[in-house]
Amino acid sequence: MGDLRSQEPTEVLDVLGRVCPYPLVLTKKKLQKMEGGTMLKVLCDAPASAEDSIPKYAQKEGFGFDSVKVEDKGHWELYIKKS
Fold it and tell me: Distance (Å, rounded) from C-alpha 1 to C-alpha 23?
């Protein structure tokens, strides 16, 4: 799924500064409102959410998932393609 970050996201969700479980809760709510085939880009600086709970949720739902850690900014960009 390495090609997801080269695509233009349909929506961007900024959860920077939020601690668990809020990044996952807000990501779920946003995805529920989006149509199939659309992509959400999540900006997240909570390691547990970016590396564990959000990827596991995306996998469980069968969504495409890709992430990149932006080292110089100290956060992750998570790309979730809703199926």
Answer: 22
* Amino acid occupying residue 78: L
pLDDT digits (tens, 9 = 90+) for 19-40: 999 999 999 999 999 999 999 9
Burial 4-41 (b: 16+ CB within 10 A, else e): beeeebeeebebeebeeeebbebbeebbeeeeeeebbb
SS (H, E, C) 17-59: CCCCCHHHHHHHHHHHHCCCCCEEEEEECCHHHHHHHHHHHHH
Judge if pTM exceeds 0.90: yes
The side-by-side arrangement of strands in the sheet containing 39-44 is 11-14, 39-44, 75-81, 64-70
